[in-house]
Amino acid sequence: MLIIDCPYCGPRPELEFAHGGQAHVVRPADPSKSSDDEWTEYLYLRLNTRGVYAERWRHARGCGRFFNALRDTTTDHFLATYRAGERPPTVAAPRSAP
Q1: pLDDT tens-place string over residues 56-71
Q2: CA 56/CA 88 separation, integer angstroms
Q3: How far is CA 3 from CA 15, 36, 85, in A?
Q4: Are 59 and 3 in contact (CB under 8 A)?
Q5: Distance (Å, rounded) from C-alpha 4 to C-alpha 1?
Q6: The domain containing residue 39 runs over which residues?
Q7: CB atoms near residue 82 (< 10 Å)
Q8: What's the structural domain count of the chain?
Q9: What is the per-residue pLDDT across 1-52, written as a single tens digit (0 to 9) for each?
Q10: Rounded to two decimals, what is the model's pTM?
Q11: Would residue 51 be called left, alpha or beta, if left means φ above 0 and alpha means ψ between -120 and 50 degrees?
């Protein structure tokens, strides 16, 4: 079972969490002045990078709080978790498999 380290509650099983998509997506300051293309990009288009990716998570069956995580999408390993509103921590680049 995958263990996720909630920055508020500590390590818990993955079944307690809900994935919330890409982290650090900035809402337009004045959505009424955004074009349809800009609004569509904000709502639907996300990066889908291979490697380290910043994601939002919610401890749905625990404290209920949102937090962010850096996860390596190639291995599904969590490299770091941090509270919402904080800057992502610096992590070492994961080593590639031989």
Answers
A1: 999 999 999 999 999 9
A2: 12
A3: 9, 40, 23
A4: no
A5: 10
A6: 3-83
A7: 17
A8: 1
A9: 899 999 999 999 999 999 999 999 989 989 899 999 999 999 999 988 899 9
A10: 0.83
A11: left
